[in-house]
Amino acid sequence: MANLAITQKLIDFLQASPTPFHAVQSMVVQLEAAGFKPLDEGDTWTFSPGGKYYVVRNGSSLIAYVHGDNPVKDGIHMVGAHTDSPCLKVKPNPEINSQGYYQLGVEVYGGVLLAPWFDRDLSLAGRVNYLDKQGERRAALVNFVRPIATIPSLAIHLDREVNKSRSINPQTDIPPVLAQLAGPDTKPDFRSLLAEQLVAEGCDDLAQVLDYELSFFDTQPAANLGLNQEFFVGARLDNLLSCFVGLEALLASEPGQSQLLICNDHEEVGSMSACGAQGPMLRQFLERLLPDSDARNRAIDRSMMISADNAHGIHPNYADKHDQNHGPLLNKGPVIKVNANQRYASNSETSAYFRHLCQQLNVPVQAFVVRSDMACGSTIGPITAAEIGLRTLDVGMPTWGMHSIRETAGTTDMVDLIKVLRAHFSAH
Questions:
Q1: For residues 297-327, b (16+ Cβ closer than 10 Å) or e, as one string?
Q2: Which of 52, 214, 220, 273 has the most neighbouring CB atoms within 10 Å?
């Protein structure tokens, strides 16, 4: 039987986090409730033993840090994840009037599995930058919450070969439909719609919408699934599930050891940004934490990161897509992800550390290696290892439907990984 209390907490987190901006906001609420203090990157920082801190960059990436007794001597135990998920983002000039229907042009973000986006109840959320009534630039989060759009499928009667050979053109086939207009000559105004929604959400000082970063999302809530509720289904499990698990482990960890959780944006598009894993965010944090380069390098030598991202659980209908000896099963334990070409950062030393943790906690552990005749994805793990010089391990929970609008994971795996990451944070 699923641990319904923890899965309900995850459901609430996913529901409140339709975009990376909202996910970081949700995590900040939990961190502040647990006594973490914000760090402003424009201020001077000071750290005290036992102190709890967090810093946000771009509103979409976050570092949470607990200052232990001696980070130089003991190192820093880290967990990394990412806040972004494949999705459809609204273009700058998105308005389309086709046959009197109001549509929005969208850009594909990341490796989206497009077919499941059809015939879903979609809403829109993200960040809006605007001028207030005093002429100052401001930013606000927006979330329409209710279903406002859909991408209707073409009926099978108009494409009899659809189940054999239909391809999806991201430019022409996926602009969502928002409304029916008065006629084919009506010119929709998306920024006016956005301004109305901002005002409805309490943005009273709005004068002009300047720009935005908005994504469509599925309004169907996440849920437990299965005869014994052994599965968990929802949007953005890759990789908000790991953000949630990492935060739960951090908040439950024992004091004394220096602990760090980093949740980067832009992993799905290569991580190359100011707040991505290939950017300087973690390095700059460590430089400010330990300004002396010798002390910092000694701390890094004694530190380790567990990069938590999803793993491909073996699909019962497509078992041949996996290596015959490396098909992780849902609810059979977290997965160590291995790739000889360094698409994952795991090596025998870091894998042994994780296996030993699992062994001590009586948690089963699995391994994933992609078929030798298939390409392998990657994570923030190898990037962080290369940028920081940090021992790193890639792990994940086995899932089905990765990069779909609705993904599936095992509820037991979530509880087990929280247990292991908590032990990693707390270990001396």
A1: ebbbebbbbbbbbbbbbbeeeeeeebeeebb
A2: 214
Q: Residue 41: which of 369, 297, 280 has the closest Cα?
A: 280
CA–CA separation, 42 vs 54, rounded Å?
14
Residues 76 and 121 in one domain: no
Q: Are 315 and 281 within one domain?
A: yes
CA distance 270 to 254: 34
| Average of per-residue pLDDT across 415-423 | 97
HSE, side-chain direction, 13 A CA sphere, residue 294:
0
Does 121 lie in the same domain as 91? yes
**Tokens (6 digits) for 112:** 């989206």
Band (166; pLDDT cuts 50, 70, 90): confident
DSSP string computed for 49-72:
TT-EEEEEETTTEEEEEE--S-HH
306 lies in which domain range?
4-85+235-426
- At residue 1 the predicted structure's pLDDT band, cuts being 50, 70 and 90, is very low
| Residue carrying structure tokens 């948690």 | 363
- Any domain includes 172: yes
**Token output for 270:** 């290569």
Report the DSSP beta bridge partners of residue 126: 142, 214
- Picking from 163, 190, 218, the residue at the C-terminal end of a domain is 218
What is the rounded distance in angstroms from the CA atom of residue 298 to the CA atom of residue 306? 19
Residue type, 121: D
Residues 6 or more apart from 353 whose CB is under 8 A from it?
A: 304, 393
Task: Give how far the C-alpha of residue 366 lies from the chain's centroid of Cα atoms, to the nearest Å.
Answer: 22
Note the pLDDT tens digit of each residue in 46-56: 999 999 999 99
Query: How many whole angstroms separate alpha carbon 9 and alpha carbon 23?
Result: 14
| pLDDT 10s digits, 272-281 | 999 999 999 9
Give pLDDT tens digits for 68-121: 999 999 999 999 999 999 999 999 999 999 999 999 999 999 999 999 999 999
The answer on pLDDT for 321 being more than 90 is: yes
Distance, in Å, from the CA atom of 69 to the CA atom of 71, rounded to the nearest integer, reads 7
With a cut of 90, say whether residue 367 has pLDDT above it: yes
- Angstrom distance (rounded) from CA 380 to CA 388: 12
Indicate if 153 and 302 belong to the same structural domain.
no
Helix (H) or strand (E) holding 414: helix 411-426
Q: Give the mean pLDDT of the chain.
A: 96
For residue 286, is it left (φ>0), alpha (ψ between -120 and 50) or beta?
A: alpha
Asked if pLDDT for residue 428 goes beyond 80, the answer is no
Q: Which residues in 71-87 are b (16+ Cβ under 10 Å) and which e? A: bbebbbbbbbbbbbbbb
